[in-house]
Fold these 3 entries.
Entry 1:
Amino acid sequence: FFLVLTVFAVAVDDRGVFKSVAGLPIGLVLVFDILMGGPLTGASMNPARSFGPALVSWTWTDLWVYFIGPVTGAVIAASVYWLAFLRGREVSVPRTETPIGGGPEEELLPAE
């Protein structure tokens, strides 16, 4: 929850003025998560990090927590951030002149 909320606040939101140092608050939140969650869960914030040892040891009890927890926390953080900071705000998406997939005007390289 806190990690996603911090990433939205300092790295994603276009109103952020500290984007050049966004890694600092994100890193501090990671330290906080490790110190607070370490004694409880081993501070596994990456589901793949929990899945690997479970696969090797063939221990599947309570593994669902490591998949549902981060996804649920991210969804709640996104909802809280939207309700607290983006609600009622017009969000603009930059438009480009060229299509994303390119166009016929692109030059093809000769086959070798």
Entry 2:
Amino acid sequence: MESLAADMFNKQLGEDVFTADSWTDAFMEYGCYCNKLVQGGGHLPGTAVSDDDYDVHENICMELYACYKCINIDYDHNGTYAASVMEYTAEISATGEYQCLDPENDSENHLDNCPLDVCSCDKIFAERILENYRRCKAGESNFCLKDQFQHSNGFAQNQCEDVGLKQEKHETCCGRYPNRKPMTSVKECCDNRVVDLGSC
């Protein structure tokens, strides 16, 4: 994913800004969720430091983490994060559009289309990171990476709280990729949204 994302950034920005390694250093050596994605860990670590410090970049990484978790649930990969090593066919167009090339599968249970689903998770992640980057460059500081979450500035994984999705056993998922979300038995899926049981 890193080389595709770097290529997408460079073409859409119109300049050679990133390599695969520098893209990872800039956007993945960061905070709690983004760091765990790089490590390929099997658990969601929860929010970064505190709700007050939680930022939009960490939220995008959390969304990708949730997408990968549903890949494991849907395709029975026993929590080994198969999504992080799944091979799929994708390319970056001349205009910088990230394109998943595997044929789509309309199966409601998503049981036959793991590569495309993983690709769709990676695609929307890269697009959201690019949007944050553009808004940061335009002067919207809320969309910039925060220095206190940069690993190069001393942020350590033990600063993360073990809260949130890690503590719950997710049994199924709701929605369609790439916006599919894990949920527990006390929740239900209503119009592709996770809601409290009985509230649909």
Entry 3:
Amino acid sequence: MTKFLLGSFALGHEHCAGPSLKKKKTSDRTIGQKQKLAQPPLPPSSLAQPPSSAPHQSEPPQHESSSRSPDQSIIARTSLHNKKTRGPTKGAGTYDVVNKSQGQIQIRLDPEQKLVEGIKTHPLFVNEIGIITRAKAPLNVLGLKKVPKEDKQEWAEALKFNFDVDLMEPAMWRFIDDHMCSTYKEWKSKLHKHFKKFYPDIELARATPPPEELFGTTRTIEEWHWLIDNLYTNEQYQRRCKANAKNRQHIKFNHTGGSRPFLKHKELAETKGEHPTYISNWQAMHQYRKKGGVYVNEVAEAKGKNMAAELEKVKEQLASSAPNDTPPYQIMVPEKLQLGILSAELGVGKDKKIRGVGSSLRVQGTSRRISESNATNTSYDSKHKVDELSGKVDKLLGVIQKMQAHIKYLRKKGSINIYKLTHKHMWGVKPRNATGKMQFAKPQPLHGGAHPDVCA
């Protein structure tokens, strides 16, 4: 009896477990199919890359790899996957937009921002510039400024595949060239970080090129060796890197705005119905939104509060010259004064660019005293102009009243054609004849016998 019960229990257990295991295998296969289908299609920019003359050697030669231990090989292959970072840009978003709209994306520059118009269009265009630069730019040059302009314009022709852009427009080409240079510089910096993981073991670094997601699919091992032999081991380059690292230590805080430019953050807030100033926009870009607006550190908090207090002082000065019934929230501080506050607190770099707010915002003055004097002078000038215009309006109203009274007087006489009054007479100068008496013209009737009546 006991054997029967145990056998029945085992049979029932197998019967119950069987379908679930089978279902689990099916679900795994289904999940695998879904993951395979969920992979985004390759963007045109990656498909359009020209093949290299030499094949890419993702694996180092056998005689070089023999010097590495298994642990070093594992570290070399998984070094970029240990840290959660932003993945490589592949242009999938651009491909989706072009595929959905069945047409090219129009690219125009905002003359004030000197950036691409549109909050969504700007990152698509900039990312495509980066993809093309990393695919076509040579590595055996010290900087992209050493590359002839004709070569870079030839690379930029690939932008016309997805974008309707005029490469011959000077401002547009300046924008593209600047982003090519910045992308190339950042890419070289990432490659140098990969090299420093193996330094000072030069042979190990030579035998361990960066992974394809960083190095690219068309790059050769010879290019990696050139970087190590001619750049990364160069004493002058190493001194420059140490100097740059020392200068970066002076940076007291970073922003939380990501890759989106300063002005695009302000534009995004305006599309949501907000009215941000340059000061409030700077504050938002140096706070953790998910932590309730906490500043990144105390230095950024002090600067943000100083600029906010300075902005309130300027508002008070402008309110003193505004009408008494003007609400405080309607007092708008001119952008020039806002830039003066930013420059006084953040400082000004090359070409009068305000530090930390992008390359589009420039100022004329660089001190707090200049910004304060500008605010005072602006309020005084505005009040003076209002008084001057009010006096002119009162004078014109008086002239109009005199004209109307004189026209009524002439009408009662019934002996003047108003259309023949001279310009001087209209403005109070009465024309007289040789005898000193008023000289009137005979009335000229219009068609139908009616006399003109300008006051009707």
